[in-house]
Each structure stands twice: as structure tokens, then as C-alpha cells.
Give the backbone structure.
Amino acid sequence: MSAHRPIGFGLDHLPRIVRGEGSYLFDTEGRQYLDGSGGPAAFCIGHANREVNAAITAQLERFACAYRYLFTTDVLEELTELILGKFGPDFGHVVYCCSGSEAVESALKVALQFWHARGLRDKRHFIARERSYHGNTLGALSMSGFAERRLPFESSLLDVTFVSAANAYRPAGGVAPAELVATLAAELEERIRRIGPERVAAFIFEPVVGAAGGVVPAPPGYAEAVRAICDRYDVLLIADEVMCGAGRCGTWRALDHETVRADITAVAKGLAGGYIPLGATIFSNAIGAAIVAAHGTILTGHTYSGHTTACAAGLAVQRIIERDELVKRVAVAGRTLKSTVQAALERFEEVGDVRGRGYFLGIEFVRDRITKEPFPAQRGLSHEIGRRAFENGLICYPCAGNAGNGMGDTIIIAPPFNATDAELAELVDKLAKSVGQVLRP
Ligand SMILES: Cc1ncc(COP(=O)(O)O)c(C=O)c1O
């Protein structure tokens, strides 16, 4: 689970899962669940895939893990080559880990180590965005503009500067759509200047916000604009693609959509599709060369960095995605999925926005479509819909808080890339039925 939602929508007991098959999970009571959100947007090729299981088993039969800092392995090298192929020749470094939080944590540490290596030792400060989530370790949580998850840890978190969310549906300060990108870019620039560029290590952002906003793609041109500002002030750009990357948005890198390269990118969830925990942090040759020249090695290692069986799982998942052209499928079928969801929910005045791309869609519910007034937080609408969908045999991912003060109800849809057309149709039907049961009881 993503360790941050009420467990099981407040059900008396959690269903006990005994079997998975493709897009479905089955419990001891014989109930089946269509995994319409790939759990927390992770299970990108469904459950119990025989090819992936065979690759894992074959690896385990040979050996589970050759310690990364003493040995290399075929699966590690092949996976590394495959990942770097998505980034192009300027990117030659991957460090592996076991989760999205750790991938972000490594991204932060690579940035700090880079500036230290370059002798710019005052560059220690990070800028992040409101309504963002980067993980649950102290560093990653420090970057997260997510009050609900930070609260018990405040005052022990890193001192981070937050700029506005890039949310076209709820633009900060009510800025007009045509001015949004320029306004956000100006805000970032003003913050960098106020802190002092010589103190700013990096700006971190989710190209498409996940759990903190209920799928919020940055407006077109935003990534280019923040890239240009980071270049102007010698600030590194970190893309957190833990949720939106690895094909989920219909391009392997979410930022492929914008033709922008971040200096450092964090991926996880879909990388090994949930078969074995695996995350990775990818960074440029320029960063790697500076660090290696000054320090000899990248200081982000963990015991299980590059765990062989995790790499075998990741390689098997990614090869299936390549062979079956699943990223292309996500791009094309994602457009149909979005319009089908829009059409199925059209009759509900409370549906304010259906957004996202590929198989990463967010639906935001409002009291009033014109004013976008959210439902009161106490109503817990998104969780009620999530729970009803669950009871109807559909797993989706409810989020709250996109509108601030705990308000703003959204549901994330993120099906497996290899879900069939019939399964996608079932997803939309069950979602519309569940929304109807909650809104029109
Ligand atoms: C954008 C983003 N970054 C980081 C994380 C943390 O990943 P994990 O839960 O695997 O540690 C998440 C988890 O939901 C995420 O959505």
C-alpha cells in the first residue's frame, strides 16, 4: 500500500487476497477486484504475470543477489542499458534502490554531492512545490508540499522553500490560464534570487502530480520554463517520476511529453511493476563525472542497491512493455479511456474536471462546477467513492486535499498497461456506478 491512506477505506477487516491474474485480484471469499489503479499506480502489467515470475524464479535458482559493490550481473547491466536508452547519450548514471522515497532521497543526495564536488558548498537548499508528494523518508517528506503527511514530523524536516503548485484547474491566486506558466516561472525565479542562487542546490517537481493532487499535469510550457530558469541560475532540475513515469503517461519518461530533460530523475513504482521493490535515480554524465572526479564514488548506496532479483524483475517487466509496445498502447488507448470516463461521468454535475494523460487520469469532484467550490473535508467524498468502488469490485485511488485545507476530492485511475478493452470498459462502468451510488443514493 501507499502508507498514507486510511487502510482499506475504514472497512471492518481487510479482504484476504489469495490469487492474482492479470488485471484482477481474488480474495478468500471468492470476490474479484479489478485493479483500476494498479494499486497505488504501481502494478503496470497486472498481477501474477507468468513471464515475470519465471524470470524471478530463474534468477533465484541461480542466486538471489550479488552484492552490487563487489560484483556486476547481466540483469543489472541490461536493465541499466534499457533505462539509459530512455534518457539519451547525456545520461550515463543509474543508482538503484528499493522504493520511490529512496529514489528521491538519492536524487537529493546526488545533487548535494555534485555541488560539494564542484566546490560550491553553500548550494544546500532545495525548492519544491505546494501540493506535491515525494515520499516518506525524512528527506523526501521534507520536499513534499503535503501538510497532512508532514504534520507529525514538522520541525525535524529539512528547511525547504515551496513555490505554488502548477495546477491549471486551481491556479494559485486565480491567475488567468494564458498567464499561468509565466507567473509560476516568475515566482520560481524570484525565490531563487531571494534565497541567493549560490545557496540553491535544486528545484524538485513532479511533471504530473500524483497523490497530492489527484493527477495534475503541469500546463504546457511549464517544464520548459522551469528548465530555463534553473539553467539561468545554475540550479539542478530534479524530476520525480516515481508515479507518473516508466510509461504511465504514454511516454516512458513523463517529461518526454515536454521535450525537457531533468538533470536528475527518480523512477520506481512501474519500473518493476510491483513484482519486487525497485527504484532508480538517473542522472547526467556531467553530474556523475564531477562526483567521481572529486569523491571517487556516488555516496547513495544501500545494502540492496541493484539487488539482482529486483533487477531481473525490472528487466522482465520492461522487456514485456517494449515487446508488446505497451507505452504506445497507453498513449493511444489512454485518449479513449479519458473520453469514455468523461462521457460516463458527464451526467454528474459534481464532476468538475477529468484530466491527465495515458493511463494516469484524475477526476475531481466539486460542489459547483462553475465556482469549483470543493466539498467539505469532513464529508470524505473521495474516500466514500473509493470505498463504494471497492465494494463493487473496483480498485481506484482516492485522494483528498487538492483544493487546500483537506478539501478537494479526487479519484485516480491508473490501470495496468496491458488491461484489455473489455477490462477498461468494466472499469469505467463500475466507476460510474459507484459515483452514482454515492452522489445519487
Ligand atoms: C511522486 C512520488 N514520489 C515518491 C513516492 C514515494 O514512493 P514509495 O512509496 O515507493 O516510497 C511516491 C509514492 O506514492 C510518489 O507518488
Summary: Residues 2, 40, 99-101, 104, 133-136, 206, 210-211, 240, 242-243, 268 surround pyridoxal-5'-phosphate (CB under 6 Å).
